[in-house]
Amino acid sequence: MKNLSYLVLAPLFLYACNGAKNSNEENTVENNETELIDSTKIPVQEIPEAPKSPRQQAKGTINDVEIEVDFGAPSVREREIWGELVPYDKVWRAGANDATAITFGSDVLIDGQTVTAGTYALFIIPQESSETWTIILNEEWSKEIHGVWGAYDHKPEKDVLRFEVTPSFENDHHEILAFDVTDKAVEFNWEKAHFSFPVEKK
Question: Which structural domain, as residue segments, surrounds residue 157?
């Protein structure tokens, strides 16, 4: 009788054990799947804010000479520019941040003077008491190569050329500073100020 009871109860015990085991295995699988899903979640990354004065390039060909101007392009943003943000009678970087750089692919003539092919810093001296502004081309233009930044490190002894341009102040408003290389001249526009200077091939 005892043997008979054992034979009847043994399968029930084994079934109960297997059922518990299977339940534990299912829970483990579910937990692993949850952990896998959680571990593959991609964190939301913040989009970096666009620079206020992005670097821009103006390229073109004047009299068969390839020319490029590299500059930081600030916006007016309702500020008073000439005589305030950009002081009169001081060397200005002609843009924002790093010095504005101009590259000539060949030797050129500017204001009747020879400038050899290469890259130069382009500075401006806006003048309040004169009808002309001074343009400066300087040998040192790179923060990495020359250790200069903007016009703070301008060395007059490194100037290769100074010449005058006559700015005009127009009704059109140019919110973002811009250089442009047309088929005849290098042009500058910002706020209401405009000037240009021709370039000839040497």
Answer: 55-201
